[in-house]
Amino acid sequence: MHSFHYRDSQLHCEDVDLAQVAQEFGTPLYVYSAGTILDHYQRLDAAIAPLDHLICYAVKANSNRAILKLLADAGASFDIVSGGELFRVLAAGGDPAKCTFAGVGKSHEEIEYALEQRVYSFNVESEAELDDIDQIAASKGTRAPVALRVNPDVDVATHEYISTGKSENKFGIALDHAAAVCERAAKMRNIDIVGVQMHIGSQINETRPFVEAIKKVAPLVLELKSKYGIKFFSVGGGVGIVYESSFVSGSSSWWKEQAPARHQLSIQQYVDAILPPLREVKLRILLEPGRLLVGNAGVLLTRVRYLKQTGRKKFAIVDAGMNDLIRPALYHSYHEIVPVAEPSTSTKRDEMDIVGPVCETGDFFARDRKMPVLREGDLLAIMSAGAYGFVMASNYNSRPLPVEALVRGDKFELIRKRQTWEDLIHDEL
Ligand SMILES: *Cc1c(COP(=O)(O)O)cnc(C)c1O
């Protein structure tokens, strides 16, 4: 579900005309739907309700404080991967006791900070890290709650950069080694073993790898439960969303002729599949969704600056670039792109590349894409940009970061102002 649709021939987010938001705040501009995020959170929460659970939103997917506050107010817990993310969660009014701290390379300073704030658990990914956490906890006269992140070695059909559960990936501790690591950890003075964690990758659209991984790890979970009384089993995030489909509803049939909708794993299907094996471990279950909650809840608005033809090829050069949304360049990912003013059914189509102004051939949003005929100044929405969008933005080419806005019902507000050129040099000495 998402709340982007045409109404009166204008693309709306909930009850707000996106052209109006772009008019007010300028482009490039991310717009998020609070209603969509909350709907996803609440549906997941309801589906997993038969089990004692925490939904730990993966902050790295979209870490704007307004989004974190929205989820904290809804009762969410958080999955953080840095001290900076913990700082953000606290700044948004989140509870550190509901934060799990993941990541393969936590620094001394980050571990200290997380201990001081008393996070729910450290997800430990190596023995060296375990030693460090034990020592730092000892130096602070405290104990560290630790969950072992295991690598279940399952194959996932996703982009190689976002597959994390294969034995050749840098993540986690090999499953057959985990019990031995736990035995060592149990002897450490300042470590409490509280859980087992896994995360097999991202943008996964089938239930098989999730179920397979849970079944592979469950015996270890049961063993550690009886030996050390662990409290939870975290099954990570990774549920995929639809990027490629004609899912923007409107009055004209224009979009319905586009590519057929790809298979999407629904929240209910996902939970229905993982529930039976999870019931058997009889422990608190942690889910760590990122993309699933926010991905389809955001769009990147951009304006067509120039149209250009070279040889046979047509280009629409827009004012957003790879520095604003890097997913197409980094993962070759597909994003649906639609005009904010709805094209009529009879609108001609043109095949074109939609590219940014950055000096890189990799700076594209779409290649050889059939689009309605565009004019300079047209406003476009790059769909499904709510996850791994703004958070990966940079100042490359000395371009100010894009701005962000949040819609609730018929209201919208700026949640990140536009940087100035002064901001670009502000921190340089
Ligand atoms: C990135 C990450 C997630 C979230 O992944 P999504 O695909 O966005 O759901 C969850 N857990 C861990 C440990 C992660 O690194």
Overview of this protein structure:
Helix content is 29%, strand content 26%. With 429 residues, the protein is an alpha/beta fold. A hairpin with an 8-residue loop joins strand 17 and strand 18. The chain is globular and about 70 Å long. The structure holds pyridoxal-5'-phosphate. Pyridoxal-5'-phosphate binds next to helix 10.
Residue ranges: pLDDT <50 for 5 or more in a row? none
CATH superfamily heading of the largest domain: Alanine racemase
User: What gap, in angstroms, lies between the N and C termini?
Assistant: 47 Å
Tell me the number of strands.
21
Annotation field: number of helices: 12
Radius of gyration: 23 Å
Give the helix/strand layout.
Blueprint lengths: L3 E4 L2 E4 L2 E2 H8 L3 E5 H14 L5 E6 L6 H9 L3 E4 L2 H9 L7 E3 L6 H10 L3 E4 L2 H13 L4 E8 L21 E2 H13 L3 E7 L10 H21 L3 E3 L32 H13 L4 E4 L3 H4 L3 E13 L2 E6 L8 H5 L5 E3 L9 E7 L8 E9 L6 E4 L20 E6 L2 E6 L4 H5 L4
Parallel strand pairs: 4-20, 5-6, 5-13, 6-7, 7-8, 8-9, 9-10, 9-11, 11-12, 12-13, 15-17
Antiparallel strand pairs: 1-2, 2-3, 4-14, 14-15, 14-19, 16-19, 17-18, 20-21
Pyridoxal-5'-phosphate binds next to helix 10.
Features:
429 residues, nine-stranded mixed β-sheet, Lyase, Ornithine Decarboxylase, Chain A, domain 1, 21 strands, alpha/beta, globular, TIM Barrel, single chain, 2 domains, eight-stranded parallel β-barrel, binds pyridoxal-5'-phosphate
Structure at a glance:
The protein has 429 residues and is α/β, with parallel strands linked by helices.
